[in-house]
Amino acid sequence: MELDPVLLSRLQFAFVVSFHAIFPVFTIGLASYITVLHALFYKTRNPAWDRLAYLWTKVFAVAFGMGVVSGIVMSFQFGTNWSNFSQASANFIGPLLSYEVVTAFFLEAAFLGVLLFGRGRVPQGVHLFAAAMVALGTFISTFWILAANSWMHTPAGVDFTNGVFRVTSWTEAIFNPSFPYRFAHMAMASFITGGFVVAGVSAWYLLIGRDVEANRKALSMCLWMLLVLTPTQALVGDFHGLNTFEYQPVKLSAMEGNWETREGAPFLLFAWPDQAAQQNRFEIGIPYAASLILTHELHGEIPGIIEAPPEEQPPVAIVFWSFRVMVGLGLLMIAVSLLGLYLRRGGKLYHARRYLQTLRLMSVAPFIAVLAGWITTESGRAPWLVYGIMTHAEGVTPSLTGGMALFTLIGYITVYGIIFYAGTYYLTRVIRYGMEPKEEEKLIDDFETPKRPWSATHTPFDDNPAKREV
Hints:
With about 475 residues, the protein is mainly alpha-helical. Helices cover about 65% and strands about 5% of the residues. It is found in: Cell inner membrane; Cell membrane.
């Protein structure tokens, strides 16, 4: 059997970016939450805010470390698997990745140590400033990465001659047509992900009766934020869809499962796309809904997938179903947020055990939704690497063989499996330990100076009852 290096390279990059994406989408929102906690402690001097900040800073340390380790590999893959693309786009992609390092990584590196180990060692105002700078660094990093990725979907500000992209306008290239919508969509997804994780963990602590006062505060904060952001995300997603309708109509048609150009197109709740036959085998939909959403007219015209030749069509079934997973989870998150408002008004929020259990389960929903969204947007771009200009086959490394791509794919899966196990172990350990003891319960060894970065996750009570109390 002949192995296809293009397909395997796509699978390899998809695996790496999917594994990596779940960590930045969490740490971006969590860094801002930690900053808010530090600000509240700085203003009120309520120790509950300080203890919450300390707990979630330890969680942030582990997730941030895993995100950095898994993200470095993607830069290598541009050279090993996609050298033609790297050479062609170096005039644009190269500077953007450098800007990310200079502006975001340097900022995070300068203040991350202060955030992780400065508690009690630097003035509270300095600690708060460090938290804010780390949070700002995560957003700057997101800015540059999404600018590069959005350009690949809606290329602008460049001239493609002799197989090389030359920048004609940096402003148009960076702020390309899809960038504002993607950046807003990703930023809100990050806040929603962090909010549901903190809410889920806080709900678990309330169920077992640990640090009730502090975790009520944490849960309340998150649910107020989610009540605003989850429906707002749906609105931003609608604008993003309209942008896709304008610049990537074939992808949009695949998301809708619409094969033929027609007016008054329904929104399909369920369908079985058959790409070989260029039709759906089975459909259940809401009449006129797709046209109404995309054109704001009941009889608006929606282009069909068959407008593009078969070799330029994305994998419709993957795009169609991943989009519905994302939308379905988004609607579920809105419903859970609204239910929280109802229980809050009834005074049952902190005692509704079924709802608290639901929040525990919902802590994984944003990660699945984010992955489904990435699959939708990246699979929907196929077969284009740079939309309408360069295909995956044209961008792959010429000398790469299917065997080489398969070997490295297996290697990445193995190594990342180990990383995920180790990271999950540390995260579970930190969360099970919970918030640090109150001042009167502290142990002598709590004040030991950390020796290594991940010692920020240190839990002095771990399985050692022999430690002496002050």
